[in-house]
Amino acid sequence: MASIKSKLEKFKRMSPADIEALSPRQKTDLLRQMRQAFVLQKEKIESRNYFSPAAEKLDQYYAAKYKEEKLKDPYRMRAQEKDAELKRINEFFNSQTATIPGIQEVNRQQDIRIFGEKYTDSGEPTGKPKRRLTQEQRQVFWSAYNEFNIGADTGAIAGRNYMRLQQALGKVVLSRKNSGNLQTIMDRLKKVIEDAELLETGGSPKEGESIDPISRNLLSGSGYDL
Fold first, then answer.
1. Spatial distance between the Cα atoms of 35 and 211, rounded to a whole number of angstroms
2. Residues 30-84: pLDDT tens digits?
3. What's the rounded Cα separation, in Å, for the pair 88 and 109?
């Protein structure tokens, strides 16, 4: 009998069409096994105090589908339901943040995008960020990032400059004025992005309003400890 590990590797190579082509019994057995594999992998990630955006995305899918109820028994699910859930789990296991090394690399790249890269005295890049988000800050970062992009208006703003959004959000999360409230963070992030674009186009704030200091530092590349 094949081990769970070998079954998982085979599952990761499956396309959506491969999943749909399975027999009802195969889908049932595979869904039970892959649910267990997901739980074990998530526990492994959390035990090392890492945050996985891919795991969070799958958890949100389950929360929306089942609310506070237990997961539906695969034996009682329709074929289309099994297909949909198997595809979600397959997407998780093929995501870079499904593994600890993958999360570490994504975090490294993210920190460099937000804070910039360290250089040696001779001017050579080190591949290391100038500073790092804590895991708690990173979780707040991703929660705000996902929420910010849900709205059509804010998503349109963010979509024009992905790099700037990450840099701005990193600074907002780190700001000493940050209350930790997600809505407060999102509101300030939107203003920072809008103010930065206003400055770039040579505009001025409305009467009685001021430019957020993060916006100025965002354009100059300084001011990580606001």
1. 48
2. 999 999 999 999 999 999 999 998 998 999 899 888 876 788 899 999 999 999 9
3. 25
- CA dist 91 and 80 (Å) reads 17
Q: Is the CB of residue 26 less than 8 Å from the CB of residue 7?
A: no
- Per-residue 3-state assignment (H helix, E strand, C coil) for 75-107: HHCCHHHHHHHHHHHHHHHCCHHHCHHHHHHHH
* Contact yes or no for 67/92 (Cβ under 8 A): no
Sign of dihedral through CA atoms 138, 144, 150, 154? negative
**What b/e string do you get for 165-199 counting C-beta neighbours within 10 Å, with b at 16 or more?**
bbbbbbbbbbbeebeeeeeebbebbbbbbbbbbeb
Residue whose entry in the numeric block shows the structure tokens 């929306």: 64
**Domain boundaries of the chain, sorted by first residue:** 4-98, 133-220
Sign of CA dihedral 63, 65, 68, 71: negative
Enclosing H/E stretch for 119: strand 117-119
Taking Cα atoms as reference points, which of 176, 137, 171 lies closest to residue 51? Answer: 137
Provide the CB-side half-sphere exposure for 150 (13 A, CA): 8
Write b or e for each residue in 50-67: b if 16 or more Cβ atoms lie within 10 A of its Cβ, otherwise e. bbbbbbbbbeebeeeeee
